[in-house]
Amino acid sequence: MSRQSISFTGPNEEWLKAQVEAQEYSSKSELVNDLIRQARKQQAKIDWIAAKLERAEKSGFTNDSKEQILAESKKQMND
Fold first, then answer.
1. Alpha carbons 29 and 1: distance in angstroms, whole number
2. What are the φ/ψ torsions at residue 26 (nearest 5 degrees)?
3. Which of 59, 68, 71, 72 is least surrounded by Cβ atoms within 10 Å, i.e. has the fewest?
4. pTM score of the predicted model
5. Helix, strand, or coil (residue 74)
6. CA 14 to CA 3: how far, in whole Å?
7. Could you tell me which of 13, 8, 34 has the C-alpha nearest to residue 26?
8. What sign for the dihedral angle of Cα 19, 24, 26, 32?
9. How far apart are CA 67 and CA 73, in angstroms?
10. DSSP state, 2?
11. How far apart are CA 79 and CA 74, in angstroms?
12. Which H, E and C letters describe 6-73, residue by residue?
């Protein structure tokens, strides 16, 4: 694991200290790593949604009603 030196703004430093003092995390490093993991998971979800939206936009538009779309989706799931 590599070591880094980073600076925090006053409010962020105080928040980090409070989390460690409340024993939510054993160290600021653990907390920062957890925040980064959470951000990476969130970005993966955003990327997945963006890819789905892009694929949907490229597939074209329909004049079907929402009921027709739902029926077709259910049919495809049961096939």
1. 11
2. -85, -20
3. 59
4. 0.67
5. helix
6. 21
7. 34
8. negative
9. 10
10. -
11. 9
12. CCCCHHHHHHHHHHHHCCCCCCHHHHHHHHHHHHHHHHHHHHHHHHHHHHHHHCCCCCCCHHHHHHHH
Residue 55 corresponds to which tokens in the numbers above? Answer: 């694929």
Which tokens hold the place of 60? 């074209």
Q: How far apart are CA 8 and CA 14, in angstroms?
A: 9
Which residue's entry shows tokens 């998971």? 41
CB 27 within 8 A of CB 20: yes
Q: How far apart are CA 28 and CA 70, in angstroms?
A: 48
